[in-house]
Give the backbone structure.
Amino acid sequence: MNILILGGTRQAWELARIASGERGFDIVSSLAGRVREPVLPSGEVRIGGFGGAQGLRDWLVGHRITAVVDATHPFADTITGNAAIACRAADVPLVRLSRPGWSAVPGDNWIRVPDLAAAAARVGDLGERVFLTIGRQGVGAFAGHTAQWFLIRAIDPPESALPPHYELLLARGPFTVEAEADLLAEHRIDVLVTKDSGGADTAAKLTAARDAGLAVVMIDRPAVPEGTAVVSTVAEAMDWLRRDVTRS
Ligand code: NAP
């Protein structure tokens, strides 16, 4: 089996590690190349875009790929859409591996919004000091907010326009609740903005926000393309791959 893992997440990294040790599996992981110093997964790695759905289809055929696991971030909806189109066109089985989103618990004050633009519109009246933890790519949506101050946390510096009042914090999770609580207090944060990425590595900020009684603007995930099989754990993705081997 020649398996392509569309990566860029901890789950993709885990899957590459486990699947590389399985007899009969040849793994190639693909990264978009966004992060300057990525933590590389085990096995073969290719970096950079494919050139849209057609480019990905051609790549799958050219490399005789027999199964694709789309383990990209839940918000990477372009590559997820392209993978669905390309796999259908190349007749290659596809599964979407996406960890569950976060759920509010008593004490949380979450405001769910459908997308970045809605988050930017909503955050204006929730406080003066905003903690933005949406990755570097979406920061531009907040550039027009002149009256608020932003603590922007990302792995690499944003390249888009930035709001006039901000501090940039370059950091990569996991983060602890204690460290997150200190950060919120030190910067006198009023409101947190996050994507519903799910997972444990970056969940501590939600606990810290709950403990501090802060509002959280939670951006909902984009929908998975219709007809795409979905699993939420690496173990389920491995089961899917093993079933696929016996089918072929
Ligand atoms: P996106 O908007 O869905 O994709 C934009 C383009 O980037 C795609 O059309 C594709 O280019 C290329 N691309 C994306 N993922 C790729 C991969 N794994 N391998 C090869 N090419 C890829 O993606 P994004 O939101 O910019 O995210 C880029 C990468 O960062 C993803 O791999 C994702 O797992 C990771 N990531 C994203 C987020 C997030 O919040 N969006 C957070 C953490 C990590 P072509 O059309 O040329 O093929």
